[in-house]
# Entry
Amino acid sequence: MKGLIVLRSGQEELILEGTLFGALRSADAENVVFGEFVFNTSMTGYQEILTDPSYAGQIVCFTTPHIGNTGANREDLESTRIHAEALVIARYTPRPSNFRSEETLEEFLVRNKKSGIHGVDTRRLTLFLRDCGVASGMILPAALRDSIPAQWGRFESAGYDKIDWIRQVTTREVRVHEPAPHDPSPRFHVVAYDFGIKAQLLRDLSRRGCKVTVVPADFPASEVERLRPDGVFLSNGPGDPKLATYAVQNVKLLLGKQPVFGVCMGHQVLALALGGNTYKLKFGHRGANQPVLDLERSSVEISSHNHGYAVDASSLPARVKLTHVNTNDQCCEGISVPDQMAFSVQYHPESSPGPHDSGHLFDRFVHMMDDFVRHKYI
# Structure
């Protein structure tokens, strides 16, 4: 079935045609997908991207031309379901050629009740987003073209920036992450705030000897202290960090009591808890090939990114050290607060999929917990 992409950024509007696939199968007036359109430059890992909770509320345009080649499988999930609202691709490969494939991409979409559109001029779409910034938009059957003005009315009442997406994706109950059979015996206890946590983050902590207790995004700081953790981890997640006031307040209360490590949304929440400010990027960083300069090590890491907001480094207190910057646009990619045993990065050191240049950050967190535990019992 033919479909349309309709984007609006300020006074600019773009309409592109393609072919619908996945769960959107009928020209019903309700079969319209709304979201914030973003683009991702990763050449592999579409399954991990689609199941990353940080993409909740967003429609992902993949810039790599062929999607579907590797199918889908149970091992590459970053969460239990697809969180992206939909995907946009240039060419869909319906017959995967990978020994790990268990189903096609379309079967994966249908099972998750999600949709996509292929045969789209993704170059033009990406250039629109680069020129105009991330845009609100919709995917709908071509037969509903005349209803586009009415559909805008439905969407604008619930725009992406107005929703606290963290509350949409966080766990509802406290749970302990199940380690893999080959993981070492736990030496440390980490409480991980789930702002939209990826499975690979939990695996990377577990394989370094951490027992990980995952808690909801609004879990009170007093309850965290009762769990007596050796460290607190602040995860990735979707949306505007300023809407997560409950998370910022809890982190304020926990700072200085044990080591704290934040990633992506966790980095932004930590910055806000320290008195800093955040802002929305024009089109964000989403891809597995972003260069980041480590100011402390005088080295460049190629890293995996997925963020539409950033920390304003100039707003941070003097005791906060800027540790990483993006070499493309100089935005803040990492901070450290030595006197409060806290540090964070904007990018993804778990990098699944992506490079492994930043894995040492987990080791840094473990070393901080080791020092903390040693001094705690002296």
Observations:
- The CA atoms of residues 174 and 215 lie 5 Å apart.
- The chain has a mean pLDDT of 94.
- Residues 360-376 form the longest helix (17 residues).
- The first strand starts at residue 2 and ends at 9.
